[in-house]
Amino acid sequence: MSDYKVILKDDDGNDCLVENILDFQKHIITHHSSGVSIHEENGHYFRVDDAFRNKILNIIKEIQE
Description:
The protein is an alpha+beta fold. It has one domain (6-64). It contains two helices and four strands. It has helices at 21-31, 50-64, and strands spanning 6-9, 15-18, 37-41, 44-48. The strands form two sheets. Strands 1-2 form a two-stranded antiparallel ribbon. A two-stranded antiparallel sheet has the order 3-4. A hairpin with a 2-residue loop joins strand 3 and strand 4. The model has no long low-confidence stretch (mean pLDDT 96).
C-alpha cells in the first residue's frame, strides 16, 4: 500500500479511496483553490471549502512526519 493512499469520507459519509493524496491535493489547489465548490472523485462528492483544504493539508503533514 502506498504511503500516500488514503480513505476519505465523502459528503454522504461513504469511504472513498484516494490513490495518491498528493495528486488529489494538487487538483484541489489547481481547480478548487478558493471559495466553495464540489469535487467529484470516482463517484464520490466532496464540498471543498477552507476546512476541507486544511483537512487535506493536515493529512499530508501527518503522512510526512
